[in-house]
Amino acid sequence: xxxxxxxxxxxxxxxxxxxxxxxxxxxxxxxxFGHANKDALLDSDVDSVRDNGIADQQASAVxxxxxxxxxxxxxxxxxxxxxxxxVEVGDAIEPVVERESVDILRERQNTQEEIEPVAEMTAAxxxxxxxxxxxxxxxxxxxxxxxxxSQSVPCGxxxxxxxxxxxxxxxxxxxxxxxxxxxxxxxxxxxELHAMPRLSSRHRFRIVGCTMDDRFQxxxxxxxxxxxxxxxxxxxxxxxxxxxxEELEHFGEQANKFAEQMDGELLLTDVDMFLxxxxxxxxxxxxxxxxxxxxxxxxxxxxxxxxxxAVERQGFELAHDGAFYxxxxxxxxxxxxxxxxxxxxxxxxxxxxxxxxxxxxxxxxHVPNGEKTFNQFMxxxxxxxxxxxxxxxxxxxxxxxxxxxxxxxxxxxxxxxEMKQVDIEPGSDLAHRLFS
Length: 436
Known about the structure:
Blueprint: H1 2-33, H2 40-43, E1 70-71, E2 80-89, E3 92-98, H3 118-125, E4 150-151, H4 164-168, E5 180-192, E6 205-211, E7 216-218, E8 226-235, E9 237-238, E10 241-242, H5 245-262, E11 264-268, H6 271-288, E12 291-303, H7 304-313, E13 317-318, E14 324-327, E15 333-338, H8 347-352, E16 354-363, H9 370-388, E17 391-393, H10 402-421, H11 429-434
Parallel strand pairs: 1-12
Antiparallel strand pairs: 2-3, 4-11, 5-8, 5-11, 6-7, 6-8, 9-10, 12-16, 12-17, 13-14, 14-15, 15-16
């Protein structure tokens, strides 16, 4: 009797534990993808990678990188061009755009669409679309008379080795005047750089030096290398946002201390003039900085070993940050695969654990040739769903339709077109600087 009672208790415990696990999984799906009583097409806003705060229902699927996903149910069209003119704001030229936020999917809210089989989805999605006639450039910059930058007072009759204003006219490949706030330092005597200056800021900076043969190079504390002057640039635009006026002024104070330590003359870019140019560019960066997430979910579960084998057959490799990456010929990541619950993939867990599915991520600003690569991205997603028996779903765990994915592709192409209008090529070194 004791054995029977103990056996019955064990069976009941196992049943209770399974029910608990099932409830936890359902709760996890609701938390991950949203609630059934919420209309994702009408109530959700586009989530920018630039946003640092993460909403409860749309937490990032990447365990390391601080970004938010743009989910398929939340996409909006590009802002419409109001006219081809520009207006002056202070000394800057800002684009005249109509900032209406019209959901590209709202017009279909009363239309019941058929969900097409996964096997037929790829061919329909990958059909090329005719490019619509696009409006003029969103950003048109005219030459204006620039404000005089602030300059340190010369020390008596001493003359610096370089003219700081001539230095400001030098086109240096390490900097971009649209988002790098620059300080120019000309020394009174040639000096070695014994140590890199400490410029505390949440933004990155770079220092370039002019050697005695009038060549600019990345400055390093190398013995017997003497410099005539330096250009220090603070990258004021990144995924952390635009540097404030106070941050730029603080950087100027630090650059001034560096100039005093090196016994040199200082020239600073005018803060107001710089912000007038940087603000519209930062607004564009915030608008285009999106990550598309597609979720592949199992109706039961799949083993980690099977999952890893399938994604590696498609060319993905497991990285040290716990995500799978698909790289291009240069070794730069194009797509990534992460877990549904923000936990990293590891070799040990993949060998011993089952998964409910995973998310595939498409970082719009880091992927070149948006239409072609998005077709490749969707082709891989469809192949993985077929091989592993997974469903392609949105945040409400609804199967994706072909028309929906076509609109997402159009969204990607439009965002990248905006980037190209201001000479930021998606996936380029410049894009990696701005969106990192």
